[in-house]
Each structure stands twice: as C-alpha cells, then as structure tokens.
C-alpha cells in the first residue's frame, strides 16, 4: 500500500428516500467496488459516505483499517501541518464527501452554524450528535430538483393573495402586514432588509406552529386546488410539484413551508448550489455529489417522521431571500492540471472543502495534477481509467474511492471518454 495514494471502502446508508435497488447510483457503486455487497432490489440505497465521520467511516481497501486510524498514526503526512493547526484535529478530515441517490423528497431542513452547533450538541447530543456547523454543496450528476432558500418576497406576497390555504395558516393580520410592508428590492444589510427578514420570520413561524388539524384541512384543500385550479398558482410547475409531494407525504406541513415558501430549484448535470448554514433546503429527486463540513446536525421542518425542532428552527434561520439563480455556484477554471481532459472547480465560500470535477469528454489520455496542500478523497463516477503516483498505479472504475495525501502529485488516465472523477479536498488558504 502506498501511504500517499490508496483505495478506500466507503459505507452506505439505506434511508427511505433513496432510490430502490440497482436503480440507485449508490447501490451500483457499493456493489461494483465490493462485489460482496449484494444489492437488495426492494431496498432503498440513499447515501455513500466517504471520509472519517464516526457514523459511517471509510476503510483502507486492502488492510480494512479505518481511515481515521491511518490518519492518527501519521497525522502530518496524512493531513498536513497547516490543516491540523487550522482545524485542530489529528484524526479527522474537516469535510464529508457523499454520493446521494434521491427517489423521494428529503426532510426540509437547515443546519446550525458553529456557535449554535456547539449549543445544540451540549443541550441535546442525541438529536445533535456533532458540535460543528454543516454548510454543504450539491453538484448535480443527473437532472436534479430540490428546495433551496426562501423565494423572493414578492413571490411569497403574491401567493398570500392567490392561495387562500396559505393565507388561512398564516392569518389575515400577518398576511396583510407582510404584503404591505415587505420591500423586495431592499439592499442586503439595510434597515429595510432587516425588516423584511423579520416579516418573513413571522410568516414562517405561523406556518411551522400551525395546529395539525388546521394543516391537514388546508393541505387537502390546497391539493384539490392544485388538481382543479392550476391558474391560481404563480408558477406553472407548482401544482404538479405539490401533487407529487403530497403522494409521498400526505397532508404534510412541508407543502406549505417548502412548496409555497421555498425556491423550487432544477439543476442540469454539472450545475451546483451552495447551501449556507441556517438556510432551509431539501432535495427532491436526482443523483448528486454532496460535500459538507464534517457534521451530521440537522434541524428538520417537514416531510419527515423524524424529530422536528420547530422552536430552534424558527429562531435560527437567516431568512435570506433570493432567486434560484442567485444561489447557484459557478464552476471555475482549474489551472493546476495539465494534459488531456478538463477539470473544473466548485469552490464555495468556506474553509472546509472544495470539489474538483475531471472529465475526458473530448479525448482519452493522461491528466497530471500538482500536489495539493491538504488531503483529498476522489471517486470515479463513470467510465474506466487509472490513478497513479510515484510508481503506484491503481484501477479506477465506477464507485472506486481513493485517499490522496497532501503534496502528492497524481495522474489520471482515461480508457474511455466517459471517465469522470470528483475530488473533494481542503487546503489551508
């Protein structure tokens, strides 16, 4: 085994929202990388976890030793001095890399920032197992849809006028206050912007604290409207979305706090969104690469049978409001690679991670990468090829996962034009 480049075995999670059996990319990757994993065609396969998180750790493929143990034995070689100093750990990666295969909507959720993460973990370690924040980025591998952040305020005001069920849950007084006082063109950070956020919090708080009987009654009326009065909705695809979501979670509060208050986001393969701490979101369908700070803290709002922490959720959100386009990430050029193929960088405005996508759509061949100043995890998602360094050459097939130590120059060699890899990494600057 090379200490600088070695293959990993990644674990998977079978949450109910995952794609079923071999239709799931997660199941395909798990089985292809380890044929002893038998795909159960009636079971969901939702997430492939790559990293050192204690819930689903990765292991060295040959020795079966946990990655965090390998790191702890030689932390400077595996993480780098600067990463150890920056994140104050000699055993763990600061990021968690995942593949998600989504058949049903995930819970509408938000994640605490670092300060709130520490508080929630101390108060309720069962429901908040980590003391860290959890900003995350999603890169679409197939067509993807989800909820991402609150809609622009004028759209919400329009819905309060158009949709009686939403107005009933919010109440006439707060509905009218929101419609009259909100200023959709307010400059971020201004007093008008601060007031906009307070108004949005009032609306969201009323929705999240609505009595269950009221939610059930108004949800059924809303779905009847979606079937019979589609012109009442300000977006053409909204009635169909609400009907689909109601089949998965009948009469759920998520129809209102998600379907009517949050942006419905569609991504094509290669597009990405960054989800900041304290911003509400949910994934609805598709396959994505997801990277996040190493945390499993989730504050849930709807579309879930799990624990909902309504009080903390209503208090914690930023209540930022923007269009879908305003939340998409732009892929950047990556000048630190040469040779065949193309590499693009998804670099969110946080310290814990960035993700590099490499493809060979135009020509097969070899692509060389200079050493990064921190550790990396790379997965092959399509096609066939090799990854190599200093005399070590390893086969890279769909679902094969690799750890790359800091300052390690590697080469990717494509055997076909489908060969695609994603590499999550962290650097000190």
What can you see in these coordinates?
- This is Mannose-6-phosphate isomerase.
- About 30% of the residues lie in helices and about 30% in strands.
- The chain has about 425 residues and is α+β, with helices and mostly antiparallel strands.
- Among the domains are: about 140 residues, Phosphomannose Isomerase, domain 2 (Orthogonal Bundle); about 90 residues, Jelly Rolls (Sandwich).
- The strands form 5 sheets. Strands 2, 5, 7, 9, 10, 11, 12, 13 and 15 form a 9-stranded antiparallel β-sheet that branches. Strands 6-1-24-21-26-19-18-16 form an 8-stranded antiparallel β-sheet, with helices on one face.
Major β-sheet profile: 9 strands, antiparallel
Instruction: Please state the CA-atom Rg, rounded to the nearest Å.
Output: 23 Å
Question: What structural class is derived from the secondary structure elements?
Answer: alpha+beta
Task: Specify the overall morphology.
Answer: elongated
Ranges where pLDDT stays below 50 over 5 or more residues in a row are: none
What is the average of the pLDDT values? 92
The beta-strand count equals 26
How many H/I helical runs? Answer: 13
Strand content: 25-35%
């Amino acid at each position: 085994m090379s200490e600088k480049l070695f293959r990993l075995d990644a674990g998977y999670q079978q949450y109910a929202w995952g794609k079923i059996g071999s239709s799931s990319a997660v199941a395909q990757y798990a089985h292809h990388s380890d044929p002893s994993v038998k795909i159960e065609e009636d079971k969901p396969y939702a997430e492939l976890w790559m990293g050192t998180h204690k819930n689903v750790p990765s292991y060295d493929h040959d020795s079966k030793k946990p990655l965090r143990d390998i790191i702890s034995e030689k932390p400077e070689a595996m993480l780098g001095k600067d990463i150890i100093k920056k994140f104050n750990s000699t055993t763990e990666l600061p990021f968690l890399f995942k593949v998600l295969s989504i058949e049903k909507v995930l819970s509408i959720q938000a994640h605490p920032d670092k300060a709130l993460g520490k508080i929630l973990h101390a108060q309720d370690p069962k429901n908040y197992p980590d003391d860290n924040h959890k900003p995350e980025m999603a890169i679409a591998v197939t067509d993807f849809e989800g909820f991402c952040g609150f809609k622009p305020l004028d759209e919400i005001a329009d819905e309060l006028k158009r949709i009686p069920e939403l107005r009933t849950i919010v109440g006439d007084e707060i509905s009218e206050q929101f419609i009259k006082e909100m200023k959709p063109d307010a400059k971020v950070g201004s007093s008008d912007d601060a007031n906009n956020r307070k108004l949005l919090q009032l609306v969201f708080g009323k929705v999240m604290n609505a009595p269950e009987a009221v939610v059930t009654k108004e949800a059924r009326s809303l779905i009847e409207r979606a079937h019979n009065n589609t012109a009442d909705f300000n977006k053409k695809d909204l009635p169909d979305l609400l009907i689909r979501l109601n089949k998965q979670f009948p009469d759920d509060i998520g129809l209102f706090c998600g379907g009517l208050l949050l942006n419905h986001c569609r991504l094509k393969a290669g597009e990405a969104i960054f989800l900041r701490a304290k911003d509400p979101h949910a994934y609805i369908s598709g396959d994505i690469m997801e990277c996040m700070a190493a945390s499993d803290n989730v504050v849930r709002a709807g579309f879930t049978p799990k624990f909902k922490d309504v009080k903390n959720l209503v208090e914690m959100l930023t209540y930022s409001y923007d269009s879908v386009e305003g939340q998409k990430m732009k892929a950047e050029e990556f000048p630190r690679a040469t040779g065949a193929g193309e590499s693009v960088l998804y670099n969110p405005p946080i310290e814990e991670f960035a993700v590099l996508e490499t493809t060979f759509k135009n020509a097969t061949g070899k692509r060389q990468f200079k050493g990064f100043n921190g550790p990396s995890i790379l997965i092959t998602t399509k096609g066939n090829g090799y990854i190599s360094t200093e005399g070590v050459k390893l086969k890279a097939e769909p679902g094969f996962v690799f750890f790359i130590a800091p300052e390690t120059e590697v080469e990717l060699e494509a055997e076909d034009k489908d060969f695609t890899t994603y590499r999550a990494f962290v650097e000190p600057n």
